[in-house]
Amino acid sequence: MQIVMDKYKGIHPGIVLERELKKRKLKKAPFAISLKEYPQTLNEITKGRRGITPALSLKIDKALEFEEGTMLVLQAYYEIGKEKLKLENRPNLSLLRNALFWDTDIEKINWSKQFKSVIKRVFERGNEGEKSEIIRFYGIEKVKEVTGDNDQKISLKILDHVKTS
User: Fold this and answer.
1) What is the C-alpha separation between 53 and 131, in angstroms, rounded?
2) What's residue 40's pLDDT?
3) Using one digit for the tens of pLDDT, what is the confidence trace for 136-157?
């Protein structure tokens, strides 16, 4: 079982479930009903839009004759992967004051989608260290694009940042 588990680490368990159902030629709706679950619930899981609960994991494991906890472990690996990705795709928060983002939870900022707002805010209200961290994280071109600052100020900040790093 460990070899199979390693193969699927980080993949949403619903995708693994869908493959398994297809391999066994089982339809999702009748399978869901046999588990005493709504077909819509199982469909959401197989599309990766919903997670697997411990109770549902036990039902699926038993019905498909998996080792107990298999689907739940896959769900845990998937969640761990999501959290790691969040941590990797954000600036060093210890270098940014929470006061800059007083109106939101800094842990919940989507740094890739909300980059314009973040850059604008830091360059309007941030100190030099915070600006340097944003430049390091997003890159000089993206910062220049958002701030509209094509003069030498940002380039000098980059040079200073590179020299001190």
Assistant:
1) 42
2) 97
3) 888 888 998 898 875 545 555 5
Q: In the chain, what are the domain boundaries?
A: 2-88, 93-164
Joined together, the tokens standing for residue 42 give 């199982």
Task: Give the fold, CATH level 3, of 2-88.
Answer: 434 Repressor (Amino-terminal Domain) (1.10.260)
How buried is residue 138: exposed, middle or buried, by Cβ count under 10 Å (0-12/13-18/19+)?
A: buried
Backbone φ/ψ region at 153: left (φ over 0), alpha (ψ -120 to 50), beta: alpha
Q: Name the DSSP class of 35.
A: T
Confidence of residue 41 (pLDDT cuts 50, 70, 90): very high
Distance from CA of residue 29 to its chain's centroid? Answer: 29
Rounded to whole angstroms, how far apart are CA atoms 17 and 60? 9
The pLDDT value recorded for residue 141 is 87
For 148, counting Cβ atoms within 10 Å of its Cβ (0-12 exposed, 13-18 middle, 19+ buried), the class is exposed
Structure token pair of residue 31: 């399978």
